[in-house]
Amino acid sequence: MSYGYQLSPTVVPYGDFDPRADAEALRKAMKGFGTDEKSIINVLANRTNLQRQEIAVQFKTLYGKDLIKDLKSELSGNFEKLILAMMMPLPQYYAKELHDAMSGIGTDECVLIEVLCTMSNHEIRVIKQAYEAMYGRSLEDDLSDDTSGNFKRLMVSLCCANRDESFDVDPAAAVEDAKELLRAGELRFGTDESIFNAILVQRNVPQLRQIFQEYENITGHTIEDAIENEFSGDIKKGLLALVKCVKNRAAFFAEQLYKSMKGFGTDDNRLIRLVATRSEIDMGEIKEVFRQQYDEPLENFIAGDCSGHYKKCLLALIS
Q1: Rounded distance, CA 279 to CA 85, Å?
Q2: How far apart are the first and last CA of the chain?
Q3: Cα distances (angstroms) measured from residue 228 to each of 107, 225, 302, 306
Q4: I need a labelling partner for 7 at 20 to 30 A (CA). Which of 65, 128, 145, 279 fits?
Q5: Which SS3 state, helix, strand or coil, does residue 163 take?
């Protein structure tokens, strides 16, 4: 769902890009005794994902060594995790995150929601291709095996990547859809989840905004209120995420960042994923919304929650 939104990256293509010089600087930073983490951050946090891929190719050409393996052997902890996330091509990175969320005991539904509820059709299709190439299984099959009930249906529907991506708004159809949602939820005993699924997964973003407005006009309360009352568990989280992304995608990601750091301990995997992926898309806007919603800059949260080179690299990516 990246169409129709303002792009405001904090990491942009580096102007005087010289992959050979960058490869040499990284080699120098890792050669000999000790590691120059500052130089590594200086290079990698100021290059786009595609530029980092070019640096890795140059590094192998110059030294016959794998840059990722060298970084792995030199770095540790969350700083290492962040740098490795930054070095992975985005489709493969998302595929890995989805796979990790479903492997082992239990499923991390937050990751599935964060990825599948926020992506455009094209982005989902590219991630699906990467997933199958990496794991020899289709993403849809793994989602089917690993989730259940209405949440499974929502995830599989999103995985089909068949949303209307036009900007056409049909006010009369929006009124009809709003009435459909009302009949499927609040006006009946038990909820017909399939109607919510069909409308929220297929309609384009401007049309959905119109539908949500009509719903509020008819009922006097928001579609979120209805979902809160009618649903529970993962399906509720998934539908609320879709609604949030339609209304204000930056606000959805600002909330995810806040949740990754608030309370006891930091969810570093989530924080790394959000910063590494959104910095080239809309981190500028997310930061602005974050400050409005939580009365404090995102930088302050990261500075208070993280430390060392990990903190410095996160701050470099969002500045």
Answers
A1: 12
A2: 24
A3: 22, 5, 30, 33
A4: 128
A5: coil
pLDDT tens readout for residues 215-237: 999 999 999 999 999 999 999 99
Number of other CB atoms surrounding residue 52 within 10 Å: 20
Q: Distance between CA 11 and CA 280 in Å, rounded? A: 5
Answer yes or no: pTM beyond 0.85. Answer: yes
Structure token digits, residue 303: 């500075």
Residue pLDDT, tens place only, 127-185:
999 999 999 999 999 999 999 999 999 999 999 999 999 999 999 999 999 999 999 98
- Per-residue pLDDT, averaged over 61-71, amounts to 97
Side-chain half-sphere exposure of 137, counting CA atoms within 13 A: 15
Please report the DSSP string for 166-216 in residue order.
Answer: -----HHHHHHHHHHHHHHTTTSSS--HHHHHHHHHHS-HHHHHHHHHHHH
Alpha-helical regions (H) of the chain: 19-30, 37-44, 49-63, 67-74, 77-87, 90-102, 109-116, 121-135, 139-146, 149-159, 171-184, 193-202, 205-219, 223-230, 233-261, 268-278, 283-294, 298-305, 308-318
* Residue 148 structure tokens: 């259940």
CA–CA distance, 174 with 193 (Å, rounded to integer): 18
